[in-house]
Design goal:
This protein has eleven helices and nine strands. The chain has about 260 residues and is α/β, with parallel strands linked by helices. The protein folds into two domains: about 5-200, 2-enoyl-CoA Hydratase, Chain A, domain 1, CATH 3.90.226.10; about 205-250, Lyase 2-enoyl-coa Hydratase, Chain  A, domain 2, CATH 1.10.12. A six-stranded mixed β-sheet has the order 1-2-3-4-6-9, with helices on both faces. A hairpin with a 2-residue loop joins strand 1 (about 5-10) and strand 2 (about 10-15). Helix 5 crosses helix 6 and helix 9 packs antiparallel against helix 10.
Length: about 260
């Protein structure tokens, strides 16, 4: 059985972490499998929206310290845990640089690597059983996959400090209150809600959505004036596309648009 399950519905691709027996703890096999699935989705022109979730009762419980720790396994040839986290070529970096929108369907706890993975998604929908566990300091670790960069930007410095330094675990409603998740729904409605959000995104012009995400990401680290210059570059491209003509025609004809990504 594959540790990563991939399925398509229309222009939406769902990637499922599939090690439910250990709450989707990240083995080396799972790390490389998710990386391959995310990279493939990024390259596939038929994929306009990506959803990431976990099988079973947990989203991702973090690094599998048994699978990745030679001292525990007694296998001195195994790669140390740090080998998974060269962020120059990893799932977090691919997600951060991806222009396609990504939804996290948070089914249960996200801890350590799992929390970072959830944070790197553009939107997070949590089941009522969802949790965010900022517990790396309890394992003599740090948020190794981008969390220390992301969390202060999402919830502010003071709240991020509180979560990381105290080793807090927040439930779904607490995450909703501070803006870590967009919506909380009953657990049995989670995937239906995530699919509905993804389908709603996928009716829009995909290149416009991707350009918007790219500008949002770049805008975090550039001046307003530089953003204006970049906006004009992107707009010139969008104006020349068939989808722009289709969007205008659909508006004038009072009908839903039929975008193609061209």
């Amino acid at each position: 059985m594959s540790v990563v399950l991939v399925s398509d519905e229309g222009h939406v691709r769902t990637i499922r972490l599939n090690r439910p027996e250990v709450k989707n703890a990240v083995s080396q096999e799972l790390a490389w499998g998710v990386l391959g699935a995310v990279e493939e989705a990024a390259k596939d022109d038929s994929v306009w929206v990506i959803a990431i979730t976990g099988e079973g009762r947990g989203f991702c419980s973090g690094l599998d310290l048994v699978d990745n720790n030679p001292g525990v396994r007694g296998d001195r040839a195994a790669s140390p845990p740090s080998a998974l986290f060269d962020l120059h070529d990893s799932v977090p970096t691919v997600l951060w640089n991806m222009d396609k929108p990504v939804i996290c369907a948070l089914n249960g706890a996200a801890a350590g690597y799992g929390m970072d993975l959830a944070l790197l998604c553009d939107m997070r929908i949590a089941g009522e059983n969802g949790k965010m566990a900022a517990v790396t300091a309890r394992r003599n670790l740090l948020p190794e996959s981008g969390g220390s960069w992301l969390l202060p930007r999402l919830v502010g410095w003071a709240k991020a400090s509180e979560m990381f330094f105290r080793g807090q675990t927040l439930n779904a409603q607490q995450c909703r209150e501070i803006g870590l998740v967009n919506e909380v729904v009953p657990a049995d409605e989670l995937m239906a809600t995530a699919r509905a959000w993804a389908a709603e995104i996928a009716v829009n012009a995909p290149m416009a959505v991707q350009a918007t995400k790219r500008m949002m990401r770049q805008g975090l680290n550039e001046t307003y004036e530089t953003t204006v210059d970049h906006l004009m570059v992107h707009l010139r491209v969008l104006f020349g596309m068939d989808d722009f003509k289709e969007g205008v025609a659909a508006f004038l004809e009072k009908r839903p648009p039929n975008f193609t990504g061209r």
